[in-house]
Amino acid sequence: MNVTLQERIQHTIRQDVKSMHAYAIQPSAGFLKLDAMENPFTLPPELQKELGERLARVALNRYPVTGPGEVVKALSRFVELPAACKLMLGNGSDELIDMLSVACDVPGATVLAPLPGFVMYQMSAQLRGLNFVGVPLTADFQLDEAAMLAAIEQHRPALTYIAYPNNPTGNLFDERVVERIVAAVGAQRGLVVFDEAYQPFASRTWMQRLAADEHVLVMRTLSKFGLAGVRMGYLCGAAALIDEVEKVRPPYNISALNAEATLFALDHADEYARQAALLRTERSRLLAALAAMPGAHPFPSEANMILVRVPDSQRSFDGLKQRGVLVKHIAGLHPLLANCLRLTVGTPQENDAMISALKASL
Questions:
Q1: pTM over 0.85
Q2: Using the 8-state DSSP alphabet, how is residue 256 labeled?
Q3: How sure is the predictor about 7, in pLDDT bands with cuts at 50, 70 and 90?
Q4: Residue-wise over 265-283: b if at least 16 C-beta within 10 A, else e?
Q5: Contact call for residues 206 and 199 (beta carbons, < 8 A)
Q6: Domains in the chain, please, with CATH?
Q7: Is 171:165 a contact under the CB 8 Å cutoff?
Q8: Distance (Å, rounded) from C-alpha 361 to C-alpha 320?
Q9: Can you say how many angstroms the Cα of residue 151 is from the centroid of all Cα atoms in its chain?
Q10: How would DSSP label each residue in 173-206?
Q11: Per the omega criterion (within 30 degrees of 0), is the bond before 165 cis?
């Protein structure tokens, strides 16, 4: 019997997977790339040379054992990990989110997160068979406290994600509201995960509060730090909690090259701190320029991105592309994001080009 490929797919692939869309990555060749919140700076030539020589000495014929362990120690020192806490590694935040879904997949488990937010919270939950509940933010992208507390009371989520700052809106939520949500989740015996992917650009962190909140985890990535190509994420929390999540971590999930590149970056953390400081300065300049544009409404940001609402986002997005500037058109991700673009903060020269192109595109 001849069976077509489509018949095989219909028979073997899950229906919910067939109904999903893959994570979209825009083709960027030939564009000024300001769509993915990457650090736009490369290393100075002397550091590039030093990194190349260091990577050349890595024993690629061996499984990565020593390097990842050294990264855990170095990162623990770098973030000033509180006592009685541990740190584990993931292949970017995405893998850590998936490991949390696996570890917390008890019968009837629910994942809760504000919306709009990072799409992987929902995607990972659904692929791992957990329920997902999204709670809309307010019109100015703050947490809807009453709705969040009601959802926590009703669904008793195993995992509640709070992006801090939030993606794609870039803002930090009201700390007092966050504290009450953390307490409510704790009272229901759930876990809170602070996703601090944009921490190098933010004024607040939950890291030093981990010792007091044993049901809280802090997740970060070095992608925004300046190592997007290295794919290094880490999860911090109470030692006993991290020990449980570690059990579902794939063996050798961190490559020897990635581990060595991370150790090198931490040895030169002052260079990356200098880059982050410049990006924070550029963020302020970009916010001011956007606020002065007729028809543009930028929202406050504590990340290396700015959310801006324009009269016609599709027209502006297309106009920017025609002028060689690639940003993220996110108007279709959630009703609250109507006519919104997300702009990565780039180098001073890149930001000048983006400002000029956006003015011409409005």
A1: yes
A2: H
A3: confident
A4: bbebeeebeebbeebbebb
A5: no
A6: 15-43+270-361 (3.90.1150.10), 57-267 (3.40.640.10)
A7: yes
A8: 6
A9: 23
A10: PPHHHHHHHHHHHHHTT-EEEEE-TTGGG-S--S
A11: yes
The per-residue pLDDT for range 302-339, each reduced to its tens digit, is 999 999 999 999 999 999 999 999 999 999 999 999 99
Cα 253–Cα 255–Cα 258 angle in degrees, nearest 5: 120
Using CA atoms, how far residue 100 sits from 7, 192, 208, in Å, is 34, 11, 21
* Structure token digits, residue 30: 């030939």
Q: How many CB atoms lie within 10 A of CB 360?
A: 12
The values of phi and psi at residue 322, to 5°, are: -60, -25
* Residue 59 CB coordination number (10 Å): 11
Residue 1 has pLDDT above 70, yes or no: no
Q: What is the mean pLDDT of residues 122-150?
A: 97
DSSP state of 251: T
Q: Which of 109, 130, 129, 79 is nearest to 235 (CA)?
A: 79
DSSP 41-73: PPPPHHHHHHHHHHHHTS-TTS-S-HHHHHHHH
